């Protein structure tokens, strides 16, 4: 991945920057810099309308092939899109799970029938998705899922029973991709299926999980006889692990550059506050700000290196990608701590509930979860050691 862009790329940058400048106005002006970590509860309906506005302008799914409704943008242009989107302060995307995870997975592994059924709604910004991976006993250990799926010959449908947890935006989603066990006698990563499940149906219950921020981005989802058509399994029964791992490759994809621009916006806010309230005169604070700035640059360069090693349409990445989640999650948690220290001790005291948190207070509380979801820091270190460095696997204690 080169660290400079062609004249054509820069023209593309001007096009998206101008579109955002012209459209983040009027009814959408209030959405600027909203909907990020810990702020996903703000303006949900308006941000769904923004998703459709993006679709009208042809700015959803820019990296998808043109035959599936995307722009077919190069990696360089995708990087530019996500950077300019965040630089403009455009709101957090409510459709990012469909666009960044479900869609690319269907393009890579799905049937043509599945692509024609599900991709248009994602491109149009009219259908939202959530991810049914984690369970109470299978968080970072995805291979331990207990949710079951059985095929009912009489109805010709798959029947799902089980529970998922920490399901982001399930309360707003139309569909969920679900990992479930198709072979009840299977263990670990064998005998799994990858299912496409409609949320608005009998047998699906969503219960919000109230977080320390007072909001409920995460949910529990219960499947009690929920159904999906026979054609709504991606791959064959038993292929679920392969599809799930391919999806995780897309999760480490080009949108990470947009995530970093959002981090830059947060760091800029911390720096501005430090200048205003005098905290920047403290040499320790100044040193921590400088370190945060330097590490964010390192994060960018490593992401560019990571993307340059992307191999194939199945989302697979080279070993450099293994360090990314651990690095950004730890960095973001430290930024939240820096923000609190810049705000000063009074930011830790509120009059009482129900209370309103500032953006930086909410960010500090929410980023505690960054080192947990998407694979805990401990799991990430194991992955680096075992898959990246070839070290012996961690001993597992056999069940009694």
Automatic annotation (TrEMBL):
Residues annotated as domain Acyl-CoA dehydrogenase/oxidase N-terminal: 7-125
GO cellular component: plasma membrane
Keyword Cell division: no
Keywords: FAD, Flavoprotein, Oxidoreductase
Ranges for domain Acyl-CoA oxidase/dehydrogenase middle: 130-224
UniProt cross-references to Pfam families, sorted A to Z: Acyl-CoA_dh_1 (PF00441), Acyl-CoA_dh_M (PF02770), Acyl-CoA_dh_N (PF02771)
GO MF term (any one): oxidoreductase activity, acting on the CH-CH group of donors
Highest rank taxon of the organism: Bacteria
Gene3D superfamilies recorded: Acyl-CoA dehydrogenase/oxidase, N-terminal domain, Butyryl-CoA Dehydrogenase, subunit A, domain 2, Butyryl-CoA Dehydrogenase, subunit A, domain 3
Cofactor: FAD
Domain annotation Acyl-CoA dehydrogenase/oxidase C-terminal: ranges: 238-388
Protein family membership: Belongs to the acyl-CoA dehydrogenase family.
Name of the featured protein: Acyl-CoA dehydrogenase
